[in-house]
Amino acid sequence: MSENTTGTGTAPDAGPAPGTGPAPGTDPVPGSVLPQGQPQPGYGPPQQGYPGVPPGYPQPGHPQPGYPQPGHPQPGYPQPGYGYGPAQPGYAAPPPGYQGQPGVVGVQPGAVSAPWMAKPETVPGCPPGLEYLTQVDQLLVHQVVELLEAFTNWETPNRYQIKNSLGQQVYYAFEESDVCQRQCCGPSRGFIMHIVDNTNQEVMRVSREFKCCAGCCWCADSDCCGLEVVVEAPVGQVIGYVRQRGSFWKASYDIMNAEKETVLTILGPCCICQGICCTWDQEFKVFSTNGIDEIGKVSKQWSGRERYASDFGLEFPMDLDAKVKATLVGALFLIEFMFFEQRKNRRR
What we know:
11% helix; twelve-stranded antiparallel β-barrel
């Protein structure tokens, strides 16, 4: 009679009951679980842990006294943040919608990174931010290529890098204008050119109001036909004007101070033409009030990229008043929009 293998009995091939190990001196059954604390065959006894923290050292979770707590920066240090900090005394607040990149000074979107000129010391009688101009006798102005404009022919606001003769960036200029005027009126549009320094503070502003059918040299002596830009430094304080003057052929301008007294004049070339066959610079010479002594020039430089951007040079005496130098920067932008912005639009 066969033995009963059901009920309370144990199957012949069943292992030891759960929680029990093999008999001393016997090998464990494969797949069986050893009781907790009993070492595996071939391994020594488990280590008893690592020694505690030596006396005199801070315990985990208890920072050493005198050091800032996590999430609580040390007093007296600036908090991390984005955009602009408070405007420095004498500077205008940045225009709405213009933000600097967090943690990066002087790097503008779309512009090629260039070393910035070190900020000079304050000069008595010089508007804040124009101290840079007291140390230079030449400026190079490079327009930033706008890819959207190059590929779609959609007119976008212009942007410029203003550098010294060493290639160090002194200022960055960007245009503010009405989108409808940019598309419909082209270079005749009114604009505001914001000029900021390496701390992203607006130190100068050049503005031109829109005038319909203006710019003809024959009738420029009339207020409704002559183009004019106003230069402010700091913003809200006018330091000079650039006024188109009537002439028979050549472009002519008056550089005026805040009282609208002529201090310099600019006379353009007879023929303004640049292309594959005309690769020389177009020079607008700067004269003293007598119209004889040449003291500088605004030159449109040939760079081979005239289809998309402009490059200018501006020369003046080192000892020229910083306010007059800033007004000449305004004259450069007026010349750019009158003669070369239209040519870029036609080439596209």
